[in-house]
Amino acid sequence: MSAMGNGTLVLLRHGESEWNALNLFTGWVDVQLTEKGMAEGRRAGELLAEHDVLPDVVYTSLLRRAINTAALALDAADRHWIPVVRDRRLNERHYGALQGKDKAQIRDEYGDEQFMLWRRSYDIPPPPIAPGDPYDQEGDPRYAAGSVPRTECLQDVVSRMVPYWETTISRELRAGKTVLIAAHGNSLRALVKHLDGISDAAIAGLNIPTGVPAIYRFDEELRPLGTLAYLDPEAAAAGAAAVAGQGGK
Ligand SMILES: O=C(O)[C@@H](CO)OP(=O)(O)O
């Protein structure tokens, strides 16, 4: 924790999940990490320790790929004992009817343009998931307080994420803490869009790699000093390119 001034924000997308490896749309489906994803979590913690970026508190979604990545990273950084806050507002974007579908098959079936609109446009959500679909989260006890979305576009994620940032996470930073957010490709894209002031059009080009920590530092007004800085820029560039290419032939 810094003695004065604002704290440091660490963003960490979960390591590779079983459905990342299978190239399936995931959203709110609670899939496990692969062995590679677990190794990415441990490596993320080593990077935090090497760079002396030691979280004071961790925020995660309600999904095990983020929860377990954070636990592995914090264990590797010897910070497994810090307070944890979990909140559905950090969940991945709900992918609607695409949850559980193969990305390459959807691209083949609907074409490149529709695939990219569903995947990366700011305000076009995929079709809603049907009630009773095996990958619907309706009735899941973890979401008992509040309704479960049937689909979300990135704008919907910004609408749930930014108020949480403003009322809760930013306060920890104003108190000088180092805050780790362990979350998801699209929930982190929503936050980076807000912090870096990225336009609705340009955000389509931003892809977050799995398992590579990135940091923001802030001025007195909690404006970011520079853009998102990855602790391993080479791994981040390779990982972002891999995400961008998902669904490709
Ligand atoms: O399937 C998902 O939930 C997300 C993240 O894995 O995929 P995409 O990068 O295609 O938005």
Mind sketching the topology for me?
Blueprint: E1 8-13, H1 18-22, H2 35-50, E2 57-60, H3 64-76, E3 84-86, H4 103-110, H5 112-120, H6 154-174, E4 178-183, H7 185-196, E5 214-216, E6 229-230, H8 233-244
Parallel strand pairs: 1-4, 2-3, 2-4
Antiparallel strand pairs: 1-5, 5-6
Helix pairs in contact: 2-3, 4-5, 6-7
Bound molecules: 2-phosphoglyceric acid.
The site of 2-phosphoglyceric acid has 11 residues, from helix 7.
Give the ordered list of helices and strands: EHHEHEHHHEHEEH
Q: Describe the main β-sheet briefly.
A: 6 strands, mixed
Q: Order of strands across the widest beta sheet?
A: 3-2-4-1-5-6
The end-to-end span amounts to 46 Å
Strand content: 5-15%
The portion of residues assigned to helices is 25-40%
- Reading off the top of the CATH hierarchy, the class is best stated as Alpha Beta
CATH superfamily: Phosphoglycerate mutase-like
How many strands appear in the DSSP assignment? 6
CATH architecture: 3-Layer(aba) Sandwich
CATH topology: Rossmann fold
Q: Point out poorly predicted stretches.
A: none
Supply the helix-strand structural class.
Answer: alpha/beta
Question: Average pLDDT value?
Answer: 96
Shape: globular
- The tally of domains stands at 1
Structure description:
- The chain has a single domain, classed as Rossmann fold, CATH 3.40.50.
- The chain contains 8 helices and 6 strands, in the order βααβαβαααβαββα.
- The longest helix is centred in the middle third of the chain and has 21 residues.
- 39% of the residues lie in helices and 10% in strands.
- The protein has a 6-stranded mixed β-sheet.
- It is of the alpha/beta class and 249 residues long.
- Helix 2 packs across helix 3 and helix 6 crosses helix 7.
- The model has no long low-confidence stretch (mean pLDDT 96).
- The structure holds 2-phosphoglyceric acid.
- 2-phosphoglyceric acid binds next to helix 7.
